Amino acid sequence: MKPNNQLIGERIHTFFGETVAPIAHQTQFVRRASRLDGLMFLKAIVFGFIERPNASLNELTQVCFDQGVEITQQGLDERINAYSVAFLKSIFAQAIEMFQNILSLPLPTLQQFSAIHIVDSTVKELPDSLMQEYPGCGGVSGQASVKIQLVFEFLRGNLEQVVLQAGRAADQGFRDYLGLVKAGSLTIADIGYFSLDAFKAILAKNTYFLSHYLHPTALFTPSGERIDLLYLLRNATDGKLDTSVLAGSGEQHRISCRLIAFQVSQAVADRRRAIARKKAKGKGRTPKQEYLEILRWTIFLTNASEQMLSAEQITLLYRVRWQIELVFKLWKSYAGMNQIAKWRGERVLTELFAKMIGIVLTYFLIAPLRMPEGAGANYEISAVQVRKIFAHFARQMNQDMTNLPDLILLLGDMLRQILRFGLKQKRRKKPNVCQALVLASLASNIQTQNTHS
Q1: Which of 38, 82, 197, 439 is spaced 20 to 30 Å from 190 by Cα?
Q2: Cβ(32)–Cβ(16) below 8 Å
Q3: E-strand spans in 167-234?
Q4: CA distance 453 to 436
Q5: pTM as predicted
Q6: Rounded to an integer, what distance in angstroms lies between the CA atom of residue 92 and that of residue 75?
Q7: To the nearest whole number, what is the mean pLDDT of the chain?
């Protein structure tokens, strides 16, 4: 995968040159002439937080000064209000739409899908002043919190959809991601999103899903006979099961899919059972013995055929879902999402959207570099290292934003540093997920050739 510095530079230059001013006026952030116009404010607050994730108002006024705008801390604080929230919220939506990489990972196992959507969420506690807009769950979680629903398109590395909800909203009720589903795409979601109706909607669009099985969802044979899952697992050979089933007790919700199961080690099973007992105890219950025995297995449901994905490839592909956890780790630990103090609500939301715009920019730079040496190499770009390098270049990028040739030269320098210093250490014993998929594909092809020879 080789990035196009010219294209990346033009996209960033166009975004900051043409998108900002109209939105600043539409949201009434700019209502009269001011040296701290929409563009200056946006650049100061976005690149200020990229350079220093915990930047204070004083440090942000210094960024303004670097751009030729003198403003006091009080003056900047006054510009952070309901209008700045609306302005940055609209800018963030435009950033999601505009900063989309088109280069896909060069892996045949993945490229048989038109897109690979990973769905998950994270929660950020907010000051109580925002409890009307973003009610939380109360208790230790606070009276106000925002749940950020993210759809990460893994094939191209894009943050494709970000939806802010009340912190108390349940993942299982989230359906916005279905609007992104297109023919031939694959959706991978955590068990918290398990919904037969959602899977049915995916099937209706000629697309694919991959999910953990949620016990005790009813299972039937293709002919309609009820399946005793535990009996089926006990009689599986070599600790593996791959069979066709109908999932769902009500016919209006029932779907046709594959059930794939792998037996886990005793240590893993014991950990799962300890967690299950602890959760049940908290609710005044005792887990059933049948459920505890089923926890000895990792069980998936999917409508992808065996010809598309072997059982082993299914297991590896589900590991891709953990990539979104790495996205959240970057957000919280390195992009300053966890460092947003409990200021007044408008300041908190302004900082939140400013940092998320910076995150979108970060992933726009990362996406075309994720496999710098092609599909055969066991190297990966480290999002954390990229973010640190981006922070190093943030001030100069802010200065060069209006000069396209200088911006392209700067991007070239930055991308060269990323390729030299932004790689994860080569993993000798355990391959990264992309390399593991390459090896699994080769093994599957060899097995297929031996079967037909």
Answers
A1: 439
A2: no
A3: 186-189, 208-212, 219-220
A4: 26
A5: 0.90
A6: 24
A7: 89
46 is written with which tokens?
């976005």
Q: Which DSSP category does 135 fall into?
A: B
Q: Coil, strand or helix: which one is 254?
A: coil
Lowest mean pLDDT among 374-378, 420-424, 436-440: 374-378
SS3 category, 40: helix
Residue 125 in contact with residue 144, Cβ under 8 Å?
yes
Instruction: Extract the tokens encoding 280.
Output: 């049940």
**Dihedral of the CA atoms 375, 379, 380, 385 (nearest 10)?**
-150
The SS3 of residue 304 is coil
Is residue 11 predicted with pLDDT exceeding 50? yes
> Counting Cβ atoms within 10 Å, is residue 419 exposed (0-12), middle (13-18) or buried (19+)?
middle
CA-based nearest residue to 210, from 308, 111, 314, 107: 314
Query: What 3-state DSSP class applies to 209?
Result: strand
* Secondary structure of residue 162 in the 3-state scheme: strand
User: If you search the block for the tokens 């270049």, which residue do you land on?
Assistant: 393
Output the pLDDT for position 432.
Answer: 67
Of 63, 37, 157, 41, the closest CA to residue 101 belongs to 157
Residues pairing with 118 in the sheet: 152, 188
